[in-house]
Amino acid sequence: MNVNFTAKPIDFKLGEYMSKGFELLKKDFGNIFVAFLLCFIMSIIPFCGFLAVGNFYKFLRKVNNGQQASPGEIFNFDDFMPYFILQLIIFAGIIVLYIPFFFIMPAMAIAQGEGEPNPGLMLFMFPYLFLMIAVIYFFLLKGFYIPALISFKRVTDIQTAWRASKVMTKNNLLSILLFAIVVGILSQLGIIACGIGLFVTLPFMYTANYFAFEDAMKQIEHDEISEIGIQEKY
Question: Which of 221, 48, 85 is nearest to 149 (CA)?
Answer without folding.
Answer: 221
